[in-house]
Amino acid sequence: MFLGKSGAILLGFPDTTQDADEFPAKSEQNGQAIVASLRELGFQLTDADIAAIVGGKAIVQLKDGPFDLDLIFAPDGIEKFDDAWTRRVEVDGLPVCHPDDIIASKRAAGRAKDQESLPRLIAVREYWERHLKNR
After folding, report:
1. Model pTM score
2. Which of 37, 104, 112, 98 has the alpha carbon at shortest distance from 71?
């Protein structure tokens, strides 16, 4: 699922980002599938990258591909993938974390740049709930 600012942008957040944040399910089988997909997309993965992905390391940052990608297997503020998956929303066929989960993750991360964006994220969530949720 898309998470972070990339997920928020898909929900209408008026901003930009330098990377895509993905929240994948943590399992060896899923990790192997992710590795195969990333190679197909053109990512150059090291043995350390592969081990981190298959092992479900909390955060795996990939810079050697067609775009920068953060795989976040354990995002701050979200306890379990399965719970977040049940709350997900679809945007043009793409799974995106629910706005509440994106906000919870930004709050829990505690970084200044995340705290600064919270009021705008909350406004986007309110807009999404009023205008886009049932499209």
Report:
1. 0.90
2. 37
